[in-house]
Amino acid sequence: MITVENLTKTFTQSNTSVAALDDVSLEVPDGSVCGVVGTSGAGKSTLARCIALLEKPDTGAIRVDGTDLVSLEGSKLRAARRRIGVVPQGDSLLRQRTAAGNVALPLESAKVPAAQRRSRVAELLDLVGLSDKASVYPDHLSGGQRQRVAVARALAAKPSVLLADEPTSALDPATTDSVLTVLERARSELGVTVLVVTHDMAVVRRIADDVAVLEQGRVVEHGKVLDLVSEPGSRIGSTLLPETDQASVLRPDSGQQHDVVAEVVLVGFAAVGALLPEASSRFGVELSILGGGLTRLGDTPVAKFRVGLSGERSESALKWMIERDAHVRRAPVSVDGVAA
Amino acid sequence: MSDVTPWSEVLELVRPATVETIYMVLMSTLVGVVGGLPLGVWLHMTSPVGLTPKPLLHRVLGAIVDVTRSIPFVVLLVVVGSLTRLLMGQAFGSSAAIVPLAIAAVPFFARLTSNALREVDSAIVEAAVTTGASKFRIVWTVLLSEARAALVGAVGVTMLALIGYAAMAGAIAGGGLGATAILDGYNAYDDRVLYVSVVLLGVLAWGMQLLTDWVTKLVDRRRAVTNV
Ligand SMILES: Nc1ncnc2c1ncn2[C@@H]1O[C@H](COP(=O)(O)OP(=O)(O)OP(=O)(O)O)[C@@H](O)[C@H]1O
Ligand SMILES: [Mg+2]
């Protein structure tokens, strides 16, 4: 478990000071994946570097499995670092060492005997799917392969937590997927707690259980991804959901009149698959989808639709859906009956 | 100029001189690397971008290195001459010439080392820090290992500079191709000895450069730029 309490960090440079972190508190439960998002300069890397014990915060505490690590020094600091696997932002592999040599580095730091080291390195290269690249030097690996070696290296000394700063930036979607698969395996097969900094919502959708939004050094939103998407006021929630407006431009029945227009968020297999048709038939209302779409948050299908309902019992149909945990937000209806 | 010296005699003159030059250069390079490498590492570690920044110490070390480096070698030669007499009982011959050469080589190689280490990407060093590696391990397995190509190059540059210095030292202290060129060639109006010595110095320098390039290629695992 990673616990961050009231972290502040101010950088001073030539008379101007930047509050990179301003009273940041965060908790990442055991074996979960937390995504940290935010605009450039929001303080994401600073947070990751503080937790990686590369940067000392001005105030606050950082706990990994309970103990505060901020004030550690010397050999205790080095021992603590071994419990935290780090995939730094950008290229960080030793260019004069093979993939296997890079993965072995933390094991050498931990003074693991050579024989054990070799088998552990083989295990990890297998985990990231690069067994055949063991003796290849980084310059001869692709960007995605390099990043997977970096993940394998971060996991080598069996850390309890893994930090990854923009592990998929500058990678194409397919390569991003291979890196995310590796992060997911780290969590599911090794039980590692993962904190991943990213600006890519696809990363959050794919692997994050929790998400924290940083803005000018402050956490402005933090919670479970599945909770935030159902929360009407959540900005990150609606960013993670499919757009309804874009698709509505293409809606086939733009001339049609509706009695009620609403945005409906559906979470889970059952809801996404059956709720809308069932409401339609049960209440005898005509229900047309005006926009929106389907996405996945981890393994959970999630949909956001803009729907138009026509029929006497439209209101009852909406109410029925709300009772079944659909999250409904009524859209303002314009004069011609189409949502404004 | 009277009769031309026969080739056999020229050969007899330059052969031991070549060996002496190689001996002077290799010995002083060895001392330069053994002394300059740790000094260069220390210089880098205490620098603002190093692992243990110590601004004051860094400035003092830097000043010592750069002041020694900027003393013209001829001056160093003369000043060190008396010191050499104390140290080795004599101030002449190729062994005696090694003292000023080594004194010049140490700060020279130290500066080249610290420059080479500065070029190692800080992201790579930080990644090693996060593995819980000790500073010693980081210096050894990250900094020196990653900078190996630049360091081999630095050894080459040092050797080349020392060939020039050794010629100068030899001319004053006696010994080596420099001495042969000036004493047996120039002063004796023997053009053949003079030019053969000079050509041999050039060949020696060229050979050392080739050797350096070959070793660099051997140890460097980064992708070579091809098709330029
Ligand atoms: N070493 C430093 N010295 C001075 N200012 C710094 C330093 N590191 C970060 N900052 C400042 O702190 C703020 C947060 O930087 P940080 O790198 O954490 O942003 P980020 O969210 O990771 O951005 P990006 O998405 O671009 O990586 C920025 O305003 C940055 O200029
Ligand atoms: Mg960043």
From TrEMBL, chain A:
MF term (GO), any: ATP hydrolysis activity
Alphabetical keyword list: Amino-acid transport, ATP-binding, Cell membrane, Membrane, Nucleotide-binding, Translocase, Transport
Pfam families (UniProt xref): ABC_tran, NIL
GO biological process: amino acid transport
Keyword Electron transport recorded: no
Domain ABC transporter: 2-241
InterPro entries assigned to the protein according to its UniProt record, in alphabetical order: AAA+_ATPase, ABC_transporter-like_ATP-bd, ABC_transporter-like_CS, ACT-like_dom_sf, MetN_ABC_transporter-like, NIL_domain, P-loop_NTPase
PANTHER family reported in the protein's UniProt record: AMINO ACID IMPORT ATP-BINDING PROTEIN, METHIONINE IMPORT ATP-BINDING PROTEIN METN
Name of the protein described by the UniProt record: D-methionine transport system ATP-binding protein
TrEMBL record, chain B:
Localization: Cell membrane
Cellular-component GO terms for this entry: plasma membrane
Topology of this chain in the membrane: Multi-pass membrane protein
Keyword Transmembrane helix found: yes
Residue stretches spanning the membrane: 22-44, 56-79, 91-110, 149-173, 193-212
Record key words, sorted: Cell membrane, Membrane, Transmembrane, Transmembrane helix, Transport
Primary location group: membrane
GO biological process, one term: D-methionine transmembrane transport
InterPro entries on file: AA_ABC_Transporter_Permease, MetI-like, MetI-like_sf
ABC transmembrane type-1 domain residues: 18-212
Keyword Cytoplasm: no
UniProt similarity note: Belongs to the binding-protein-dependent transport system permease family.
PANTHER family: ABC TRANSPORTER PERMEASE, D-METHIONINE TRANSPORT SYSTEM PERMEASE PROTEIN METI-RELATED
Record-given protein name: D-methionine transport system permease protein
Protein species of origin: Actinopolyspora xinjiangensis
